[in-house]
Amino acid sequence: MPDSLFFIMEGDxxxxxxxxxLRLLKTGDTFGEEAVLCNITTPLEYKSSSFCRxxxxxxxxxxxxxxxxxxxxxxxxNNVLTHLQSWIQEETDRFARAEVRRGFESSPSAVP
Length: 112
Fold this sequence. Notes:
Helix 2 (59-68) crosses helix 3 (70-106). 47% of the residues lie in helices and 28% in strands. It is an alpha+beta fold. The strands form two sheets. The protein has a three-stranded antiparallel β-sheet. The chain has a three-stranded antiparallel β-sheet with strand order 3-2-5, with no helix packed on it. The protein has one domain: Jelly Rolls. The protein has helices at 33-38, 59-68, 70-106, and strands spanning 4-10, 13-17, 20-25, 30-31, 44-48, 53-58. It is built from three helices and six strands, in the order ββββαββαα.
C-alpha cells in the first residue's frame, strides 16, 4: 500500500486505470491522498508523461502536519472526498458505457 502523498512540483503525470488515461495531472496537483489518509488502495496507476519533479510526503509526516493544523486537515479531507467522488463518477460512467456497448453488440442487426 502506498504510504506517501505526492505533490507534482513540475511536469505532467497521467492517472491511468487499466492503461487508459483518466486524467492528466499537472504542476500543483497531488495524488495518493486516498491511500495515505483512508488506508485504501485504488486500481489507479500514475505515470509521468513528461519530465517531472515530484515531492513525496511520507504518511507519518503528513499525519504530523494534519494533527498540528486542523484547517489543513479539513482542506485535505475535502480534497480526498472530491477525488473519491470524481473517481466513483468516472467508474459509474465507464460501467454505463460498457453496458451500452454490450447491449448494442448483442442486439440483432437492423440490416439483414
